[in-house]
């Protein structure tokens, strides 16, 4: 059976299972008129929340990012931390407001249409940029598993995401989402166990991570450091040069995640607070299971990749291009692996020739002496997880499993985001603000249109990225951290904040963040329009990178909001009472 | 398959005999092979088609690339198509056979002549569901010979027993008023005070003079009560009766718009009634003890099935039954509960009985609110007795044990406030179900103030918690609407009409009513109120009400057919689409389309897709 067929079977079967569960869950309830939303076991709920949480970025990209250097584990810390922040600080109170969405909350708490509209604008910008990431992720997965190029893959994913979001059905069924989590975690764990067994002989990947490399007897991480150093890369576990920036970046991610609208919706709409707390605990367990596996996959995957290219050690001859294995060929088709034989020796030299970040300068003369004329292989970070089973020569079903997992992750997150966008446009922006006379049917039509619009824009931007995807994602987190998160926090915890303060705060926070990002990454991400070069010596205080500015934006938001509120009238008694009730039931 | 064109099916039964003959002589038969084009989009049609055998698809040419090929609807035996394209001049859609098809052809010219000469026939093609159903309904009752009972039921206030009222200006003395009443042989009179009317009865005059020491020259305006119960002249007489039964009063004032039109007296209505076969209302009021009451109670089922089989609109039958039942239950309650407690407790009937929508005897769903300071050790014993008495009256026990014999459903005012708060915060299946049952509750006996305080407290507790309403509304999505992919009725012999159609409407309307603090419990009245408050559009509310009637009717017919209502409750909800006639199938399909639309609207409004 060809790999293509296996992939189709796995992807098809996983969808069949989700659909079957959705139908089964419905059939189960048909005897009773009122099913028990809150009577699903907390473990199930925890799994469902975890599936919601783990996006395509988590599944496909994080391990890839971490594989470049342990520095990027900031993503893991930030995202996990963000979850803890949300679950402990915000979640217990959000439900008590009785609103569905972030703009709904902002509109109600600050009793202001302007504030609501600003929240809508922020929400749309955040969600749109985030959708791009999900669709690109799904696009890569589709491209590989349907054996087409990335552009076609992206278009396919746009169609599938649209169908998925419009048909809805599968969303919101706890059991389906729990099943998605199971597929996701299996797809991530199975290759990790394989790798761990292969490289260290230890079954549990998390343990393998700190065990010895089977062949050399050295600790696994020491071996990896040695291999990457030998190829001119920075040590895998190298310390971070700019700790302040790393700290700010982590906090930005954390606060930003806690302000992501599609995630917050979950907490707005938990049935009741007690159940929510219990399932939040389980969700953390399931999320942690995933995130602790990521660094293992990253480091072992990288070691494995390098060992494949340099089968006899880094000081010996590398892989001959004409004898390249099957996986190399198939991934070349997607355009995510590219080889250019710069010195025409027919062999693949993969090393840091100084064009990648933080090169190991000692290696340059060695490379030159070996007749290497520059790095010949570029590998897209996103393929590390997807290509892992092939590189590791794992059986076909593992590859199929990964395909199913990657697609499940991106679809569930993308459809959540699209729902958030469409309800913000149709309900918060049009019905509640601009066109109060809309009929239900018109409102539903606009919701669909908004969804189509969002997918079209996301697809266009996915095909013609104005900058690197990572930069637009930075914008999403920066915006979420500097606009929505403070608005929520102050809405709950500071009774004195009024609409003027909130509006001024959001505008100042989000404005300064966008300004700072554009300053270094180009105005509206148009390349070459940046005012300053994107390097540390030009940063504010020489440390704050544009990606880390979100938390500064949040501080600006807090400060401005508090100052303006104190200088203007108090919020109405009614609203103060509402805030008081939310905190002290 | 009959070779004779069936003129007894709608809409052809709307034609006169002459018109039917005219139609039959001009009728053709056409044969179409598989996948043959019958009407092309954009073209006019030369015939109206009635399928004799085979199947035809209606296709939207703009959607032809869809997986379903753009098929909007399928037409099978006895279905009619092509009329709209003649009315509009061109067809919006393409009609194509799905298999070999034979059809009756009504020539365009004949059809147009019939449309011209018969307005009811024309209206059938041009109207929305609610009007269509109305035409058929009135047609149906005519067919049944307009029996006495339905004639009574459909009688309007203005055309039956309206009495000319005695109207005096304010400032008239008691003496003069008494004299006038005597001259006019009247028991009561109306006093005009500005633009307002008040009522003075003989009893008022007597008590005014004897008990309250009024002078004989006192202005009668001081004795009058201004809190009148009124009906409109165009209302059914029947509603006046319901009003009197419910409020235990003897007469209602009739208005024509804002103008006073007259009075209707209970004795007149009852004498009107007593010429009929069932006089239950009277029996109940006159029952002097439990045994007599029981006899009256046992007659209600027969009354309702009689009314419905005679073509009385189901809404009226439901209203009457609800009013009768609540009087029976209230009377039973007053007999059983010692009088000293009457003011300290409030009995609620809940569920379909609280909504006034039961058609046959439904389970006892009731609850009791006790005043906080009430000390009543025998409460449990008395409530057990009450439950058994109702059982004896023919009201089955509630399977879910939601009855006053269950201490869970007997609580103090404060206890209820806490309980409702708990249910609304926990948001689990049982809690939501109990809440749904409770909010349909209507007070039938005891001190209503207790009920009102608990209700107002619930409104305050729920406040504007949209997320709660979202969970509350969620069950309407639990069951799929029994329509197939093409929008046709599922060809099944067990369509669950309660789960697929009635429940979503009732529960959706209940959710909106609760959110908007509408105190009505009846679904039709809730719909009227929602339309009044502009929560939903007027015509949508009308159509939903009609859809609900259509489905309730089908269900009731089924219940009545199945061994005089002895069928199991569950089975009665299962409608066999295959056995329905064309008319009922059409109505049911249109009703279900409305249900589907309503569910989509609710899903969007209450964010049911998360």
From TrEMBL, chain A:
Keyword Ribosomal protein part of the UniProt annotation: no
Pfam family, one: SSF
Location relative to the cell: Membrane
UniProt-listed InterPro entries: Na/Glc_symporter_sf (IPR038377), Na/solute_symporter (IPR001734), Na/solute_symporter_CS (IPR018212), Na/solute_symporter_VC_2705 (IPR019899), Sodium:Solute_Symporter (IPR050277)
Predominant location: membrane
UniProtKB keywords: Cell membrane, Ion transport, Membrane, Sodium, Sodium transport, Symport, Transmembrane, Transmembrane helix, Transport
Topology of the protein relative to the lipid bilayer: Multi-pass membrane protein
Chain segments annotated as transmembrane: 6-25, 46-68, 74-94, 115-133, 153-170, 182-204, 246-268, 280-298, 397-425, 445-463, 469-494, 501-526, 538-564
Protein family membership: Belongs to the sodium:solute symporter (SSF) (TC 2.A.21) family.
Record-linked NCBIfam families: Na_symport_lg (TIGR03648)
Descriptive protein name: Cation acetate symporter
Organism of provenance: Marinospirillum insulare
UniProtKB/TrEMBL annotation, chain B:
Domain of life per record: Bacteria
Entry-linked PROSITE patterns: CBS, CNMP_BINDING_3
Name recorded for this polypeptide: Cyclic nucleotide-binding protein
Keywords: CBS domain
Domain Cyclic nucleotide-binding positions: 11-115
Pfam families tied to this protein: CBS, cNMP_binding, DUF294, DUF294_C
CDD domains: CAP_ED (cd00038), NT_GlnE_GlnD_like (cd05401)
Domain CBS stretches: 224-280
């Amino acid at each position: 059976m060809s790999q293509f067929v296996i992939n189709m079977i796995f992807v098809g079967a996983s969808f069949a299972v989700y659909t079957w569960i959705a139908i089964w869950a419905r059939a189960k309830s048909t005897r009773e008129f009122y099913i028990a939303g809150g009577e699903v076991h907390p473990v199930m709920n925890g799994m469902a929340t975890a599936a919601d949480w783990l996006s395509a970025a988590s599944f496909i990209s994080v391990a890839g990012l971490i594989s470049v250097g342990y520095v990027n584990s900031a993503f893991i810390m930030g995202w996990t931390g963000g979850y803890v922040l949300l679950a402990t600080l915000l979640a217990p109170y959000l439900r008590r407001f009785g609103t569905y969405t972030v703009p709904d909350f902002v509109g109600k708490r600050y009793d202001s249409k302007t504030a609501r509209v600003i929240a809508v604008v922020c929400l749309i910008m955040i969600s749109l940029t985030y959708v791009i990431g999900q669709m690109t992720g799904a696009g890569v997965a589709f491209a590989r598993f349907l054996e087409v190029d990335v552009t076609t893959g992206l278009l396919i994913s746009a169609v599938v995401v649209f169908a998925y979001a419009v048909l809805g059905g599968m969303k919101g069924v706890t059991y389906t989402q729990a099943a998605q989590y199971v597929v996701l975690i299996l797809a991530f764990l199975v290759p990790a166990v394989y790798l761990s067994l292969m490289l260290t002989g230890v079954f549990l990947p998390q343990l393998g991570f700190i065990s010895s490399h089977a062949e050399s007897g050295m600790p696994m991480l020491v071996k990896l450091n040695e291999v990457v150093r030998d190829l001119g890369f920075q040590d895998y576990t190298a310390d971070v040069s700019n700790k302040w920036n790393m700290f700010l970046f982590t906090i930005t991610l954390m606060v930003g995640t806690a302000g992501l609208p599609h995630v917050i919706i979950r907490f707005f709409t938990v049935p009741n607070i007690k159940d929510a707390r219990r399932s939040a605990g389980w969700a953390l367990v399931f999320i942690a299971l995933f995130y602790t596996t990521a660094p293992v996959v990253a480091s072992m995957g990288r070691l494995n990749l390098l060992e494949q290219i340099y089968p006899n050690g880094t000081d010996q001859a590398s892989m001959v291009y004409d004898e390249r294995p099957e996986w190399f060929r198939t991934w070349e088709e997607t355009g995510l692996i590219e080889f250019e034989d710069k010195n025409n020796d027919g062999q693949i030299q993969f090393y840091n020739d100084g064009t990648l970040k933080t090169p190991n300068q000692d290696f340059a003369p060695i490379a030159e002496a070996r007749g290497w004329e520059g790095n010949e292989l570029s590998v897209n970070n996103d393929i590390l997880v997807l290509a892992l089973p092939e590189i590791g020569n794992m059986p076909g079903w593992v590859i199929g499993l990964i395909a199913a997992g990657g697609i499940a992750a991106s679809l569930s997150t993308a459809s959540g985001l699209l729902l958030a966008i469409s309800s913000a446009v149709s309900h918060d922006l049009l019905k509640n603000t601009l066109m109060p006379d809309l009929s239900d049917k018109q409102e539903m039509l606009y919701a669909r249109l908004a969804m189509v619009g969002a997918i079209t824009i996301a697809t266009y931007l996915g095909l013609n990225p104005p900058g690197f995807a990572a930069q637009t994602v930075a914008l999403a987190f920066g915006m979420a951290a500097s606009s929505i998160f403070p608005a929520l926090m102050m809405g709950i915890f500071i009774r004195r904040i009024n609409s003027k303060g909130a509006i001024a705060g959001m505008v100042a926070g989000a404005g300064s963040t966008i300004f700072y990002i554009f300053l270094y990454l180009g105005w509206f991400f148009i390349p070459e329009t940046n005012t300053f070069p994107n390097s540390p010596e030009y940063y504010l205080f020489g440390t704050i990178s544009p990606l880390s500015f979100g938390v500064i934006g949040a501080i600006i938001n807090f400060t401005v909001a508090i100052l303006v509120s104190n200088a203007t009238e108090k919020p109405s008694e009614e609203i103060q009472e509402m805030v008081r009730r939310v905190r002290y039931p | 398959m009959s070779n004779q064109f069936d003129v007894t099916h709608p809409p052809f039964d709307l034609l006169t005999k002459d018109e039917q003959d005219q139609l039959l002589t001009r009728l053709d038969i056409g044969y179409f092979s598989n996948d043959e084009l019958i009407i092309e989009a954009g073209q006019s049609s030369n015939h109206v088609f009635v399928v004799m055998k085979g199947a035809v698809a209606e296709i939207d040419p703009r959607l032809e690339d869809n997986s379903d090929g753009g098929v909007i609807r399928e037409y099978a035996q006895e279905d009619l198509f092509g009329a709209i394209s003649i009315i509009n001049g061109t067809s919006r859609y393409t009609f194509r056979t799905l298999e070999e098809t034979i059809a009756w052809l009504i020539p365009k010219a004949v059809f147009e002549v019939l449309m011209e000469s018969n307005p009811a026939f024309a209206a059938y093609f041009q109207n929305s569901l609610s009007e269509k159903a109305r035409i058929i309904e009135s047609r149906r009752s005519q067919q049944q010979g307009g029996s006495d009972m339905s004639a009574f039921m459909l009688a309007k206030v203005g055309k039956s027993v309206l009495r000319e009222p005695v109207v005096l200006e304010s400032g008239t003395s008691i003496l003069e008023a008494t004299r006038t009443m005597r001259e006019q042989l009247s028991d009561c009179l109306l006093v005009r005070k500005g633009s307002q009317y008040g009522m003075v009865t003989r009893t008022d005059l007597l008590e005014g003079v004897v008990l309250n020491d009024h002078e004989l020259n006192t202005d009668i305006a001081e004795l009058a009560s201004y809190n009148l119960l009124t009906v409109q002249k165009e209302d059914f007489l029947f509603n006046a009766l319901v009003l009197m039964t419910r409020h235990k009063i003897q007469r209602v004032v009739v208005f024509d718009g804002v103008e006073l039109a007259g009075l209707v007296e209970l004795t007149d209505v009852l004498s009107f009634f007593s010429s009929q076969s069932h006089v239950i209302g009277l029996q109940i009021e006159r029952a002097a003890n439990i045994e007599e009451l029981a006899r009256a109670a046992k007659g209600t089922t027969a009354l309702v099935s009689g009314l419905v089989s005679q073509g009385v609109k189901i809404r009226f039958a439901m209203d009457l039954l609800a009013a009768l039942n609540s009087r029976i239950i209230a009377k039973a309650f007053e007999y059983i509960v010692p009088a000293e407690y009457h003011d300290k407790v409030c009995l609620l009937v809940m569920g379909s009985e609280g909504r006034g929508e039961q058609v046959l005897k439904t389970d006892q769903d009731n609850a009791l609110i006790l005043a906080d300071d009430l000390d009543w050790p025998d409460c449990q014993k008395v409530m057990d007795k009450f439950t058994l008495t109702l059982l004896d009256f023919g009201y089955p026990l509630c399977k879910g044990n939601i009855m006053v014999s269950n201490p869970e459903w007997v609580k103090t005012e404060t206890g209820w406030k806490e309980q409702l708060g708990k249910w609304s915060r926990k948001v689990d299946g049982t809690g939501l179900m109990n809440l749904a049952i409770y909010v349909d509750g209507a007070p039938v006996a005891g001190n209503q103030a207790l009920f009102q305080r608990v209700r107002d407290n619930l409104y305050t507790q729920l406040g504007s918690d949209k997320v709660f309403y979202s969970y509350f509304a969620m069950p309407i999505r639990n069951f799929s609407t029994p329509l197939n992919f093409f929008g046709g009725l599922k060809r099944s012999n067990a369509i669950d009409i309660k789960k697929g159609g009635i429940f979503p409407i009732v529960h959706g309307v209940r959710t909106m009513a609760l959110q908007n603090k509408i105190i009505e419990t009846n679904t039709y009245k809730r719909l009227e109120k929602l339309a009044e408050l502009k929560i939903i559009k007027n015509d949508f509310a009308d159509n939903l009400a009609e859809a609900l009637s259509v489905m309730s009717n089908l269900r009731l017919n089924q219940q009545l057919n199945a061994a005089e209502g002895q069928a199991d409750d569950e089975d009665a909800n299962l409608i066999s689409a295959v056995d329905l006639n064309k008319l009922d199938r059409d109505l049911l399909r249109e009703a279900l389309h409305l249900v589907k639309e309503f569910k989509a609207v609710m899903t969007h409004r209450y964010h049911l897709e998360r």
